[in-house]
Every structure is written in C-alpha cells, then in structure tokens.
Amino acid sequence: MATKSIGRKPKMSPWDKSQLIWGWIFIAPTMLGLLILNFYPIVDTAIQSFYRTMPFNRGNVFVGFENYINMIADAEVWQSLINTFKYAIIEVPFSIAIALVLAVFLNRKIRFRSGYRTIFFLPMIAAPAAVAMVWRWLYNSQFSLINNAFGLHVDWISDPNIAWISVGIIGVWSILGYNMVLFLSGLQEIPGDYYEAADIDGANGFVQFFHITLPLLSRTIYFVLVTRVIGALQLFDLIYMIMDGTNPALPKTQSIVFLFYKYSFQNNQKGYGAAIVILLLAVTMIITLLQNLFQKKWVNQD
Amino acid sequence: MRKIIQILAAVLVLATLCIGLSASALAADSTAPLEVVIWDNNQQAGLQAICDLFTEETGIPVQVVVKSWDAYWTLLEAGAMGGDMPDVFWMHSNNSQMYMAYDMLLDLTDYIAASEVVQVENYMPEIWELYTYNDRYYGLPKDYDTIALWYNKTMFDEAGLAYPDATWTYEDLLNAAKALTKEDGSQYGFALNPSNDQDTYYNFVYAMGGSIVTEDRKSGYDDPNTIRAMQYVGELLSYCPPNTVMSETGTDVLAKSGQVAMITQGSWMVADFKQNEYMAENFDVAILPYDSVTGNRASICNGLGWAASAFTDRPNDCWALIEWFGSKEMQTMQAELGVTMSAYNGTSDQWVNCAEGIFDLTPYLQVASEEKTGDGNNMLVLRPYTFNSTQWQSAAQQAFVAAWADPSKMEEVCLSFAATMNNLIAQEVMP
Amino acid sequence: MGYEAKKRLTQAVIHLILIIVSFVMVVPFLWMALTAFKTVGESTSVSPFVIFPSKWITDNFVTVWKNMDFFVLYMNTLLLIFFRVVAACLTATMAGYAFARLKFKGRDLMFSLVLFQMMIPSQIFIIPQYLMISRMGMTNTIFALVFPGLVTAFGTFLLKTAYQGLPNSLEEAARIDGCSIFQTFLRIMMPLTRSSMVALGIFTAVFAYKDMMWPLVVNSSASKMPLSAALATMQGQYTSNYPQLMAAALIACVPMIVIYLIFQKQFIEGIATSGGKL
Fold first, then answer.
1. Which residues from C are below 8 Å from A182, CB to CB?
2. Domain carrying residue A28
3. What is the pLDDT of residue A6?
4. ipTM score here?
C-alpha cells in the first residue's frame, strides 16, 4: 500500500476484495434505509430553509439567505441555544456519573440486584405523557407533593431562574436507567479475572475502579457521552409537555428544537423553522467533531 | 446459521402478510368505514352514537377517531400536502381560511343548494361566516360556544355578597373580586392567564368598545378602548393568584380546587365541570358583566364546522354524513347529549337541560340573543381571526406574560405588541 | 477492622446509596399510583393537602379500562416492538460489524453519514415519512408504525463500538482456519456482542414504545394505535381528570414492566455469567 507506482493501479488482494464486497453488503440495508428515511427529508429541509414557505408548500418563494439573516438577528434563537446548552450541562455529566456508580455497584454480587436494576430502569418504561404529567404534578406550585411536604413556596417550573434546573432534574431522572444498562453491558464484557488478579494484589475498590473499570469501559463511556450530548441538544418532549406557552420561564427554558417545532408546526413558517434546524445541525456537528478529536486522547484504543 | 435463516424467513413472511393485509384494506369499496377525525375526547361517544344511526339509515359504516389537538393539525396538514386527508373532519376558525383558500376542503355549495335537509337560514350566520370563502361554502356549522361567568356560591355567602346577575358592570366584578380575596393567599377573587384570551379578556375588550382585529385587518391592540380594557385586566390581576401560579395551573383547576371565587369560561367546559363534585356543589353560572361606559355586554363566539377532504373518492358519502350531522334531529341530539350547543337555530334549548339541577346554563344562551339583558346590550362577537391567526395569537400570549408580571406595563405592552401583530398580519399572503 | 467486617460495612454503604436512589426513582410512580386511587376533588385539594386517598377507589381504573380497548393497544404495541427490534438488530449488527472490523473504500464516509443522522432532530422526519407511507397506501397498518424504525443509526453506532472492543486475535485465527468473512461474522464475532445486542433490543423496544407523535399522525384508526399514542389522545384538549389519566398511565406501564422483568432474567443475567469467561 505504501508504494504508489504511476500508471499501475494497486492490485487488490482477494482478501481486500472480499472485504469490499462483504462490507458493502453488510451496510447496504442500513445505508439504504437511512437514505430514504432520513437523508432525503434533511436535504428537503435544507432546501426549504432558503424559501419563504407558503401553506402546504404551495408556491414557496426563494429568498436566498433571508431566513438565516433574520435568524442571526433573532435573540430568541440564541437564547434557546443557550437554554439547550444549559440543559445539556446538567443532564449529561450527572446522568453519566450517577449511572456509572450505580452500574459498578450492581455489577457486584449484591442482594436484590435485579430489584434495584428494575427500579432504576422504571422511568425508561413509563410513557412520556405520563412522566411529564406526574412531574408537572410534583412540581406544581399549588398542589405539589414537594412544596406541600416540605412547606415550601417554590415556583419550580415557572421561576426563570429555577425552571431550567428543574427540567434538567427530570432529564437526569429519566435517562439514568438508559446509561446504567449500557454501562452494565459494557462492564459485563470486562473479563472477571482482571478483578480477581487485582483482589489478589490487594487493590481496593477505588483503585480497581480507576485502574480497571474506567479504562476498559472508556469506549462505552465515550459512546454514551456522544449519544447523550446529541440527545440533550435535541431536547424537545420535556419542554413541550411541561412548559405552557404563557409560562414566564419559557423564554429561559425553551430549547432550539422546541423553537423549530413552534415555527414549523404551529406558526406555519416552515422556511424559518428549517433554518433553525440547520443551525442546530451545524452546532451538533462541531461539538461531535470536537468530541471525536478529544476521544483519541482518553479512549482506550485497544 | 439455520437459526438466522429461520428468523429471516419469518420476517419475510410477516412482512408480506402486513403488506397483503393493508393492500386488501386499500381496495376501496363503499362498505369501508368513512373516517371521521375530531380532537375532543368529550364528544367521541355522542358523535359515534349519531354516526351509528347514520349507518343504520344508509348502510355506510362510520368510525370516529380522536386525536390530540397538535397531532390533529399535523395529520391534517400532512394529509393536505399528500392529498390523503381523512374523509370528514372538524374545521376551526384558526385555520379555516388557509384550508379554504388553498382548496383543501370539499366545496359544499352545490350540495347545500340541492339539499332538502340543509337550509342556510336555519344555522347561525356567524358560524357560516367562518367557513365561507369567496362566497362558496366549505363547512357546515356544527356548534357554537359562548362565554359566561362562573362563581363560587359558598365563597359569596361567606363574604356576605350578593350573587352576580345581569345588573353587574365590570366595576362590580372588580369590587367583588377585591372583597373575595383573602390576604393570606388562600383565596383569590378571580383568575385569568394570558392564554385565556377567548374566554376572558377578548370579551372585556369588545364590551369596552375595543377590538383585537379591526375591520381592515389591523391589530386592535393600539385602540384606546382596547388599552382601557387591558388596563382593567391589570387592576383585576391584583385579586388573582400570582402569574406564575396561573401559568402552571389552569384557571379551571384553580376553581375546582376552591382557590378562586370567580372565573369566566366557555360553554365547552360544561361537560367537564358537570362531572366535578366540587364544581357541582359550589358553583353556578351568571351572564358576563357589561361595561358602564358603552352599555355593552360582549361574548366571544366561535363554532366548528363539519368539512370533508377535497381529495376524497367518496364525496357523495361524505356529504351524506355531513348532511346527517346538520339535520335538525341530529343537531338536537348533539345538544341533548350535552356535547355542545348546536348551531341549528333553536336546538340549544335542549343543551340547557343537560345540567338541570346542577348549573343554570341559561346565561350562555342569553348572551347569544342580541337584545338587552338587565341594563346591558348583548353583543355576540366572532372570535377574531385572520389568514394565519395562530401566529399572532401565540405571539400575544407570550408578549403579555410581561404585562401579567408587572401590570403597570400593560399599555406599553399593548402598543408594542400592536406593532408586532401588524407586522405578522402584513406577512400573511393569500394565494 | 477485620476483612469480613469491612466487607459488611461496604455492603451496607452501597445498599444505603442504592436505597436512596431507588426512593427518588420511585416517588413519581408512587405519586402516580396514589393519584390514580383518589377522586378528582382529592387530587386538587390544597387545604388540607391529601397524600393518601381517604378511600381507595378503583373507579378510575374501571372507567379507563372500559373506555380504552387495552387488549388491542397491547397487541399493537407488541407487534410494533417486535418488528422494530428484529429489524434494528438485524440491520445494525451487520452494519456495525462492517464499520468496525472490515476495511473497504467508502467506509469512513458512510459511517460519518450514520453519525450525522443521529444529529437530526426526529421532528423533521414526520411529514416527509408520512407522505411516503401515504403514497404507498400504507396508512393505518402495523407496517406504517414500524416504518421509521427499520434501520437505526444509533444501533449501528452502538454495535460498531461493541465490535471494536473485541480482540483482533479471534478474527485472525478464524481467517487462518479458512473462514469466510460471513462465517467469521456469524459464528465467531456476532455471538460475542450478545450483551450489546440485548441492550440495543431493550432500547429499541423502549423507544418504539415511547414513540408518540409518529403513531398519532400515521395511524388515525383506533384499532391500529399503540399505547403511548392512545394515552396522549386521552389528554383531550379540555380534560384535566388527573386521577383517570394516572390510572390509564399505570395500566399502560404494567405490561412493559413485566416484559422488562422477563427480558432481564433471560438475557442480562445470562450474559453476566457467560460473558465473564471470555
């Protein structure tokens, strides 16, 4: 492979050829599906972002970068972007750290292990409508269990200074089980004799955690980190179901996807909505790229 | 290996099965059920009963399906773009202009002209207006709603106040709200949120001579009378729960939990209130107050229309069903079942009886009769709309959050929002 | 302190932490259950604030059970989950293997496309995918429910990560033994990523179950609706009957919990014992 002779194509070995054929056969169903189901719509959206869209997409007017120019001047868009970041800063680190500790505990031989596991996974199983409803209920300034049980008068979800933390807490609560199961499946692939050897050497739990678990789990942690950051940036359901349109805290909590939804589905401004999505895509790509660069530094490559 | 092949085969078989099943369902014949899509859960049972009678009569099966409000409009929009909408569905004044202007709805004009059952003059003209475009009819009036004042009898008795009646002006409402508010925050006189437009402050605005949308399609928020009404709202807010509380909890729930003495609510809430023990025990209904300056009492009125898809391959069946819904008998039945007030003139007397012995619902009808009740001239005002109403409505609800937090800013917010709204309306382009 | 005593202390601390977290996780569900047994009046009463219902009424469950055809809903949900899990595991394990273990032209470009897909908020797919289904004449079918989940970028990424974690030596040995790529994949590599496949299966099931907007839009017929969509419809525009909503939510959750219990016994624990021996 190192030599590149002019006029002669490097010959493919039968093994390389076989890899090429099987590789494409293996990825074909996935790529084809993604192409039809996802890439066609995103291209369509990207094109739409250059139009002033009319109802039902009849007679859209090409406006060049107008939507983007308006967007850059729109303080609401930037505030939503900041809100989304603030949410991610609560949800991602806390849900990963807590889930990691829980997974390590539950990977030991311990009583009621499957009971705990089931409980931690419960929020994943609840219908989102139910989760949002019950949390709204728990946080409600009048009827809430939290305020009434502790005699507080906190506007958990309508005080602009507090609401983003309240939403973040629901985020951590609902995603904990997801992270935990992924970490558990990662932990179970770490050969047990590593720990046995460490036990014999007299290494305590902390040493084992930092010297065996973390490095060997780094690939899973990286996976969870990347997918959770992307997921957090797409925050929508919680805001949609918990915050009403007249909530004073809405401007300080609404996420960028929520804003997109508002323009595209409720206000009939699909072109502007499309531009907002493209902005989110660009931001997500930059962050993922940074994570990817950073990955080489800390993820165990072997 | 064998296992994988088995799984693959099973998937294949099941996939073909799915496709086969749906293909057979696709072969449209007249015995396939007509699909009726609505968004209000409370009405499903009643409407299905009406549809079953239709099936008995014509042999055409009908299925009534309920969607959540957001899913309903997403479905309808996607369907309109793809040329595959449900057969028969509801229209709302928020969106009707758009659907009519873009020819998404079945033109009912000729059917109505040929019909013996449907006579235009038998239905409320206000509701026809909502579903007429370029003198063509695209929807048949289904129902209408008005607004009335709900008050907590127990709290009035406790405070030694007389119940609201037709002599009440908006000053009386304000004074009562003040008297009913307790300092410890356990009870408030009134409640309204920026999202309670149709059921609260729109009514105040029109009674005081202002408007939300002017006749030449401009914002009415900079009209001095509108500002006067909104400043009245500002005063009323002193006797309401904090705006954060009202933004989290609907005014109806606050009333149900005994924290608020008075609210104004639409007739669509009756079905729900009737089932609530606390409401049934403590609340009753009065007509809205009138304004002492203009002498007017205004109630916002809105109504749904039955519409059909412009793309349906069974327009005659669709019309037959719509005509059935519009017939005097079925409009009466809809009212009797307590679903809503019906748009067919005179049938709503039955609706008043649906809460007999629980609430006195006559104020909802009185306000719709364009005469004098007490000292106020009754005015029925159509819910204001433009081509794309949702846009400025949601913008208004957000803009007024600031004024709710600090009522002294009310005038300022009105004026600045009027500019925003004019801008939004100017961007509306009709085809 | 002796070794045994220290061990017991550690165990106690761990249990304490686990119990506290469990409590936090469970409170919302307890509140849901308590609300479901209350009357509407009790659920919105402030003074006195009611924690336990004065009378445990089951009316809410009865009403909800009567109003909703839960058997049809469970069935649709099961079918939806089954097809999505099968489709996702099948396509993702193949693609994940190819991306992780094979070297071929176009691989990295294609994988960046997979990553890219995850960055797109799913709300933008609703209308285009609906138009596809409607052009195929497939609205109101189970296939329509399954459609957006036929392939999964997330799953591909997950399994790629899993395959990357396997040692090279196994594959080389197989190659020397004369195994083709397909045989190596099927006989040697795929069985080793079982726990990740199970994780993917669980997540696909959970996300399929939670998917709400898509079923609401694509299947208007009540007989082809899954649970979550039916629940969302239940919160009709003007209803605020919290006890009934909570009762419906509970009835909807129970079968999922049962399925999860079965799953974890058969899979997660099975892997825990066999997986350690690699």
1. 158, 199
2. 14-48
3. 52
4. 0.82
